[in-house]
Amino acid sequence: MSKIREVKVLIASRAEAIFLWSWMTILSCLIIGRGFPPLFNTFMAVVSSMLIATSVYIYNDAIDREMDRLNEVKKNRPIVAGSATVKTAFQLVAVTGILGLLISAYVNVMMFISSLAFFVIFFIYSMPQIRLKRMFVVKDLVIASGFILCSLIGSTAVMGGIHWPGVFAGFSFCVLGFLVNPSINDSFDVEEDRKYGIRSLAAELSWHTQVQMLGAAVIYIVAASVYAVYNLGFNRILPVPVILFSILVFKQLPAIYPEFIAEKILSMRKTIKAFVFFTHLMFLASSLNLSFLF
Question: pLDDT tens digits, residue range 205-230?
């Protein structure tokens, strides 16, 4: 198999995660620029985040290849399935990581620092000598921190420093991600986590507690939307659609509360993903400067 083919399948296997952090950087730039951020710096920030996300996630796949063999979904990833070699994966990790950091350094020092923090934190998450993913709570905090780190990348790219409304939006999505991740994502990885000593919240907490965290996440994001309106200048319409969608989410919680049933959780995952993306769009819409229309 050619190197190009291997690189393609490696990147494709992590397209969702790469898109997530790229999207969070775009979202941050748009919120901070009130819909009209500087195009060049925004483009550079997104490319940098995309490359760094590619680097750290492919590195994770290379390190976790034996562990992933136990997971019905992850066992189909390229390294485990044999469609890409570990050597190619590490080469891709090096090239994308270095390019991502160089691009951020070209924009400005603050963006480089933010991008470096994103790279280092996610890299040592998987690094065998440190392995943050083995640490109780820390594992989940690292993944959630990506929302804040990408908002900082966007903020420093657009403003050259910290823009509090944009970073607050990133923090809110960080809390949301931290609270929903155990039930809708990590609950499917409990078997291999326990075998390899990964103390994820999903592996350590009861199922009922995980569902309660999911409910708390919805309540939090509603409260955050109200705070953003009265303290950070977001449009007053923001909480209304968020509350309406929250009601739909709460209506589904009783169905998954009694016990973990994979089919029901997969259905709930779709609802939560839609809720999260909808919330992103509402924060963006309520930050727009549309004065030129009037």
Answer: 999 999 999 999 999 999 999 999 99
